[in-house]
Amino acid sequence: MTANSPSVFLLMINGQIEGANFPEYDDLYCKYCFVYGHDWAPTSGLEEGISQITSKGRDSPHRLVWNFPLEITFKSTNPLGWPQIVVSVYGPDTFGNDVVRGYGATHIPITPGQYVPLIFSSTPLSTPPLIKDLLSRHTRTIPMFVPESTSRLQKFTSWLLGRRPEFTDPKVVAQGEGREVTRVSSQGFVTLSFNIVTKDMKRLGYDTTATETTHTHTHPVAAGFGPGNQTLSM
Amino acid sequence: PRPQAKPVPGSSHSESSTMRQRMKDKLKAARSEMGLPTAEEAYNFFTFDFDPEPDEETRKGQKRRTRPEGENEEGEDGGDDDEEKEEEDKEEEEELFLIDQSADDFLVFKRAEYMGYQRRLQSENELLFTPSFLTVPASSKVPENMKPRYLEEEGLYVGERPPMSLTNQNILENRILKQEQGRKWFGDDGRIMALPDPIKESSTRPPLFHIEDDLDPALQTVYRKALVSKHASQYISVGGETNGDYQLDVDVSGLIFSHHPLFSQEHVLGSRLVQLYDQHLSRQHRNLTEHLTTKLNGLRNTIGNMLEVHGGQRLTPVMQQRISEYKQEVRNTRRLRDLEQEKDRTLLKGIVKIWKEIKALRDFQRFTNTPYKLYLRREEVERASDVREYEAEIQAEVDELLDEMEEDYQRKVTEYRRQQEEWKVWRRKQRAKNKKKKKTQSQLDDNEDDEDNDDDDRTDGEAEPGPPKPKPPEEPDMEGVEKQVSEKASRIRRKPGEPILVPELTASGPITPNEQCPRGEFARREDVAKRSIFIKVLYNDKEVSRTDNRSLNSDFRVHFGQIFNLKIVNWPESIKLQVFEVLGLSTTLLADVFVPVPESSILTGSAPSEELVFSSNLRVMFDHEAVGSDVPFSFEVDGSNRQTLLTSGKLSCSVSWAVGEDDVPLAPPTTQPNGLKQLDAIASIGASGLNDMKKLGEWATESRLDPNDPNNADIMQLLKVASSGEVTAPDYFRLEQLQEEFNFVSEEDLEQSRRFRLLRLRNQEVAEFRNYKFVPAMEREVTDKVFEVRSLREIVDTKGHLDAHRALVAKHLHKIRESIINRFLIAKHHFIMSDLVQEEQVPTIGILGLNLFKLAEPKRPLKPQRKERKKVTAQNLSDGDIRLLLNIIRAYDIPVRKPSVKYDTRSSSHVLNTYISGYERVRPFVEVSFQRSVLQTTTADGPNPCWNEDLQLPFSAPNGDYSTANLQSMKDEIFINIFDEVQYELGGDRGKEVHTRLEKHWLGSVKIPFSTIYFQSRIDGTFKVDTPPVLLGYSKERSLASDGGYDAVRSLTEGAFITLFITIEPQLVPGETIREKVSSAWISFESQESEGLLLASEVFERDAAVHFPDRPCLTTVININGKTVFITRYLRPLNPPQELLDAFPNSPQEATDLIARYVSLIPSLPDSVSFAGVCDLWSTCDQFLTLLAGDEEEHAVLLCNYFLSMGKKAWLIIGTAIPEGPTTYVLTYEQNRYLIWNPSSGQYYGQYDTFCPLQTVGCLVSADNVWLNTQAYTSPLRIRFDVTKAKLWKPFFSRAFPNPGLSSVQCITLHIILHLPFPKISLTCRIEKILKEKIMEWRPRNPTRWNRYCTSTLRHFLPKLELSRGRDVADEHRLELQSLLGDYRISGFPLHLPFSEVRPIVEAVYSTGVHNVEASNVEFALAVHVHAYPNNVLSVWVYLASLIRMR
Q1: From the CA of A24, how many Å to the nearest CA of chain B?
Q2: Chain A: residue nearest B774 by CA?
Q3: Cβ of B440: how many Cβ atoms within 10 Å?
Q4: What residues 156-195 of chain B have any CB closer than 8 A to a CB of chain A?
Q5: Is B763 on the interface with A (CB under 8 A)?
Q6: Does B198 sit within 8 Å of A126, measured CB to CB?
Q7: Which residues form a coiled coil (chain B) (predicted)?
Q8: Distance from CA of B144 to the nearest CA of A (A)
Q9: Does ipTM exceed 0.85?
């Protein structure tokens, strides 16, 4: 790959699986993997990972925090098959069996840019941040779902035995093919944040930068799901 | 903050914390003394009851509570003091406790494994950090050697910090300090930097929930009663104030019939006259002729003036331009004027003619019906001036015309010149070219003359298309023009001197009274008088009013003069007037007249009265004089010139908006939908106007759009562009007009680009590109090489096939395969639930019971059972994860080296391994090769060696794709070759050193396709080793009865055997077959079988799958056209080639063998590999013999059919065998025993043969039924083949479902081609040549010498081998060889193969490794023999030998 005429472009992703919102479940962990097309290959970083088990805190009774880092670099020749991240969440059921709690997938953002952290505050700020800044481009909240049992009896037995229906491969959720045969129920949400760096995209003729690229942030920054009662300002 | 996790006591949990602290201190003290606590201490530690000291604690608590807030540090100090005191107390207590030490003597205390906790603490300490509460000293917060600086004291404003508890602040400070560069978080004053409190005191959002009274009056909700709108949506929506008092005034003034059924003939003519006269009047009024004539004269004068002013001077180009424009104008005007004049003239003539007709009619019928009278007024003109004018006019016109023609001529001439010039140039070129040609020709033929040349020229010119020779334009015809003009003038103009006629029509003529009329006319008039007319007014299709009845007059004019005032509520959609005619009691609707809804600006008073034409197609006939309506009648007496008239007329009325009392128009506002519509220019001419620029232009000029109005800017722009011709509206209509704009690239680019082609091929899942990685981003990086693979496959290489016929077959097969693969690709993309979701089956009662039973079974049973290995789905695998495990156990009956008497006597010293002992007669080892990795076992001794060795071969899937589909379609094979290791001594005569050379001699091989292992997950058994019929230097040892009973079984078969166990580690889950998927997705193959049969077969197969999952069951198969066919249709007695039957007329057994051999010689071509092990295509026997390639099924069907025709009882066995996997065999019953035939090898086995490769019998198929094996066992050894036993075999067709009499798909007789279509000698030579070249190619380092003598000898053996089918000839011909080549040590063997292509032969030769001999003095011999059987079936023998000279 010469500097003058690159034959591949690079896509560097770092970010994190920040946490999840599963109102009914606790003690969950998640797995992630990437799904990408034939023309893509990871050059560095971890393609798959499994997080720690997180319990809900008392402060935020709905929020599970993993803050699980993602870091991977892809190289590619073709934007076809742009990488998707597939997240699946697992946790114990009433009997302590490890069951799946949700599958979800999202495309990696195609525009380079940084993650603008969300601020969770229970009281209004003196200068309310703009909505645009809060809903940053590179934060994704994926709705999660699990496959449904085919019948009520199945549902009952699967609940009893702790063997819920699962996708044969979590990567199924990143494809559209064959999904029509499944029935799923939605479960909760997982929040991801990304920082994206690309290299040589433009040289190969792919322009992904948005028209408005400047984000000016004058607002306080607190990482991840900060505790709500301390809004520190610096 | 989690205080309980902190070692430092907190204020609230001081009790337990202090205790723990004390314990810790104690432990620490003890450890510092001797490292570990003594047993006693440990005991104390665990048993000592730390009673809290209540008084102390309360005291301390009180102390704490009384302490003021800011003195935390001092408080801590105080606490420390307390602790010291407490420690003293405790020591006293311990001494008290020590008295009771006697228990120590009886008990042995072992150290508890407690250290783990410490270690854990330590490791946790490495990871976890617990910030302390203690206030951080100011010195550590500010940079060194600096004093804290307080801004507030310096008089600077410092905002109020957000409130924060001191503990939290301390914790935070401690935490920050722990970090690198933590100090930067602290300000100069040694405190954490902080902005003023960001939280606003008051909320920015207005409070929502308040008590009613407090609410801002502006925000107060006001309640209003719901309003019922007077007008629904379609009504006029009104603003609040007016109550919609709109009024339409409909003024119906009257109507005139232009035709009425009661018209008499005179009336018809009269109305026509009136019409013409009206036309004349209107023309007169407009007087276009006069206007145009004046214009023409004006233009002529202008041109004349311009020419006069400039005289003979040269005209400027501007002038010229203007003059030509004027001339053009003149021409147009003249044409228009002529048209108008002609119209005037014809109109006048028409009026006069009609009037004459009326007069004639009146005379004829002798009464008058109509009051019309026409006067023609003459206006005399001065003759002389008139003539002059006329002539001058003609002259002017002639001049102009001549002028124009001249101009035209000039233009044509210049055009002609130009063309001629062009033509000349072209001709010259042509000539030059020809000359050149001539020159080259003339080198051969010099004396060609010019004429010839010219001739050639001409022919060439004709041959090549060139510009045609232009013709000179014709001179304009001057005389003709003048004549034309005068002719035209006389036609359209008044003759000079003729008086001008002015018609005047009056309706003052007398009408003949009724009594003077004849009867018919009288009746008509009576009829007219009876009739009356009225008009209904309909508003929005509802009758709102009607006029009075008015009787019809003789002039057919009705006057109403009524005005209706309509107060309207609804938006006016239509206003309709209906004309009714009343005759007695009956009323008939004559016509509907629609009146346009007036614009709101049209008000009563100013509205003009409109004349609306109506007509009716009512057919009315009368028996009196009236002409009727829609009835043909004629004016002529003879009835010719008939015409038909319809009732029609004109209704004059006006509709307008009324004006209110205070001069307010009672019209709805124009901002209504309808009003809008009229404002929108495009909509008002209809949507089609968009596509029709012309129409739009017309509309624009008609409606006199203001081009300066910004509202019209778009249209004007559009019109401008359209008229300038830049945008031409297409004549056609496209549904997706912009499709081409949205195309990614044009079609041509898409075709040409290699990159796009690659991407498309991958998307279509073409086999070679299915998982192609990294399609390059740039076009230039895609090389043509990529496509070579495909093109190789696409174009069947006819060169590679020695036989044109086979090339055709291959082509055909390729086509079929392609279509079937496409079908499967579609099926593959259909998913079912189980593909995507893993779900536990609902446990049945049986399973539940079994599971309960399992709970009770012993944990470690005395007789352990083999557990199923965990299966791995193939998707998460990568290279190196999978290995192929081979356990090579033993082999039987390996050929042994033949002791050579000659060698022993003459040169025994050369052979180390003497055969004296008879022990070391062969040293076999096994070499396994798979995917280019080769492993071998150690060498064992003797003909029945036992290796028992594990070999692990790495496995990698092609393209790194471990999907099931890919693994299924893998074509790799495992080669297991048995070699003999021979040791030779080299030149050890002189010195003491002995050089030995190891040589390996190929003895036989076993091939196992990977797909078999994949589908069966393990292969375990004894296989027959493919050994050549003759192994030079080796002999098969007939084992004697020394091994006892086992040998008795073995002696039934001959040849070497090897026992193997092969499996894949980890076990892969074989994919579901597409056939099942296909059936489950209801994409069934087409079929000509009846529905009932298909259903029954599906049920039968499903039952079999449920009850006997491991028994293959086939009832329907897919034929070569991809249609489902019932399996029994394939079986039918077919006559084998007579030649084969005649070969052994006396021995039926021999003939049977020969036929089996013949069938086995048809090349095998597994289709399952290409169809991912899923679907076999069954071709009929004649197709099979034509294609000369097929699977086991085709072989089996053919063999079975032959057997049937020979009068044998024969069945097809659907079962599994090793190594083929699911396959088809043939079962025959003769001489009270069952024989199992392997159709692809021609071998047969007895039912009780241990080495029979058939392992499972699933079902039997005969020509009329299918039986499923329902016995307990599947192995042929343990089952009974008596299909009549209903207990043992479940028939498909039973009494309940009888065989409907399925006809066979096979032809009655097989067409047999006896003669070879090509000479076999040439084939022999070619194979031999190719093989020799290949062997030399494989030995690039060493010279390859061919021993001709040996070759020719071998060539003689081969036909004998063919005749004896490879049996019982070894000894004699080896003896023969040895006598001929006594000086050589010879090792070699013949290979026997069915012939399909050269490539398998080459591979077979290569796999024997004969070319690997490295001795310098080696020579080779190679002979090929091709034997032809009927139907182009060829058997190829290759005799291969290596010779080493002994001295």
Answers
A1: 23
A2: A39
A3: 8
A4: 162, 168, 193-195
A5: no
A6: yes
A7: 387-422
A8: 23
A9: no
A181 to B832: CB separation less than 8 angstroms, yes or no: yes
Amino acid symbol at B1027: T
Phi-psi region of B1221 (alpha: psi -120 to 50; beta: other; left: phi over 0): left
- Helix, coil or strand: residue A136: coil
Q: Is the peptide bond before B1219 cis (omega within 30 degrees of 0)?
A: yes
CATH number listed for the domain at residues A9-208:
2.60.40.150
Greater confidence, A38 or B777? Answer: A38
By Cβ distance, the residue of A38, A124, A230 closest to B771 is A38
For the segment B382-395, what is each residue's pLDDT rounded down to a tens digit?
Answer: 788 888 888 888 88
As a residue count, chain B comes to 1447
- In angstroms, the CA B528 to CA B627 distance is 13
Window 854-873 of B: residues touching A by CB (8 A cutoff) are 873
Beta strands B550-551 and B531-539 are antiparallel
Compute the distance between CA of residue B1101 and CA of residue B1122 in angstroms, rounded to an integer. 19
In the predicted model, residues of chain B with pLDDT beneath 50 are 1-14, 54, 56-87, 91, 93, 230-242, 446-464, 671-691, 725-728, 794-801, 901-919, 988, 1039-1052, 1074-1083, 1168-1174
> Nearest-CA distance from B768 to chain A in Å?
14
Helix-, strand-, coil-residue percentages of chain A, each rounded to 5:
10, 40, 50
Task: Give Cα B836 to chain centroid, integer Å.
Answer: 21
List A113's β-bridge partners, or say none: A196
Please give, rounded to a whole number of angstroms, the shortest distance from the CA of B198 to a CA of chain A. 6
Distances (CA, A) of A207 to A76, B263, B781, B786: 15, 83, 21, 29
Q: Where do the structural domains in chain A lie, given as residue ranges?
A: 9-208
Size of the A and B interface in Cβ pairs below 8 Å: 106
The reply to whether omega before B1066 is within 30° of 0 (cis) is yes
- The C-alpha angle B849, B855, B859, rounded to 5 degrees, equals 140
Task: Inspect the interface and report whether the beta carbons of B838 and A179 lie closer than 8 Å.
Answer: no
Phi and psi angles of residue B992, each rounded to the nearest 5 degrees, phi first:
-85, -20
d(CA B269, CA B1281): 110
**Cβ distance of A178 and B836 shorter than 8 Å:** yes
Asked whether the beta carbons of B1168 and B1011 are under 8 A apart, the reply is yes
Q: Is B845 on the interface with A (CB under 8 A)?
A: no
In angstroms, the CA B774 to CA A78 distance is 8
* Cβ–Cβ < 8 Å for B1024, B1253: yes
Q: Are the Cβ atoms of A125 and B837 closer than 8 angstroms?
A: no
Token pair 């599906």: residue: B1098
Name the nearest CA neighbour of B5 among B133, B139, B126, B113.
Answer: B133
Question: Cβ distance B922 to B896 under 8 Å?
Answer: yes
Furthest-apart CA atoms within chain B: distance in Å? 173
The structure's pTM equals 0.48
Is B1133:B1204 a contact under the CB 8 Å cutoff? yes
Give Cβ neighbours of residue A207 (< 8 Å, ≥ 6 apart).
A201
Find the closest chain B residue to A40 by CA distance: B774
Q: Say if strands B1418-1429 and B1345-1346 run parallel, antiparallel, or are unpaired.
A: parallel
Using the predicted structure, report yes or no on whether residue A188 has a pLDDT greater than 70.
yes
Partners of B1261 in beta bridges? B1212, B1266
A97 touches chain B (CB under 8 A): no
Distance (Å, whole) CA A221 – CA A209: 24
Rounded to the nearest angstrom, the minimum Cα separation between A95 and chain B is 17
Q: How far is CA B443 from CA A29, B438, B447, B454, B608, in A?
A: 94, 9, 10, 18, 96
Task: Residue B773: list chain A partners with CB under 8 A.
Answer: 38-39, 41
